[in-house]
Amino acid sequence: MTLFTAEEVLNKLQEGESFVGAELSRINLEDCILDDGNFTQAYLRGANLSRAFCQGTNFFQANLMLANLTETNLVCANLSHAELNRACLQRANCRSLQASYTKLYGASLDLLNGIDANFSKSDMREIKAQKANFSRANLNQVNLTSAQLIKCDFTETSLRSAILEQADLSSSILIKTDLEKSNLHRYICLNSHWKNCNLVSANLSESDIRSSQIQDTEILGANCINASFTDSVLEHCSFLSADLNFALFDRVKLVEISFQDANLEQTIWKNVEFINCEVMGAMFTDAQGLTDAQKNWLKNNGALNVPR
């Protein structure tokens, strides 16, 4: 591989040359115009690309580990199969970015614009992406284990079969978000707004969903064992055939919720309001905290094994 200076890089780009497999580690390309350049398989470890213009630039299979891409323009760029472990992409414009199968372990994505970006099947474990915008992004099968996704926008985002185990989505917006078959085991989601989301067959076991508002969301067949819905409001949601064994409903308002055929064994209920809910076939074996009036109402509406 050949080692280039920043000046040589810019001159060669103007001449239409590519940098396929080039050795560019720790190069300083801050504020440089690299639009539509070809850096396929280039070695850019620790490079400074902050505020650079990389619109449409090809970084396929490039090594950008520890690189600085702060405020970099990556609109329509290609980072697929690239390595960006521990890289900094704070405030980067990644709109319509192609970044499937990309390694972003421990990267910083705070305030990133990821609208319409494709991060499918990427390794995004332990990323920090506070106040990032992932609206309409493709995050299918992404690994977001232990990611910090606080105050993020996931409007119309697809997270099918994604791994969000122990991730923190507190104060985030989830509107028309698709999380079907996603793994949300032990994830945290405080003070969040959910609306028209798809959580069919998702794993929400041991999750902490406190002080949130969940509306018009499908949670059919989901695993919600030992999940906590403390201080939340749920409206027009369906837990049809969901497993809610040991779940905690503390100071929860339930408006037109379907628990039909759900497993609610050993659940805990404290200061809960049932308003026009469906409980036909729901199993309440060893449930705790229900008032006598609630027990009678549950029995009269088809719930099973309601405690005496």
Automatic annotation (TrEMBL):
This is Pentapeptide repeat-containing protein. It comes from Roseofilum halophilum BLCC-M91. InterPro entries: 5peptide_repeat (IPR001646), Pentapeptide-BTB/POZ_domain (IPR051082).
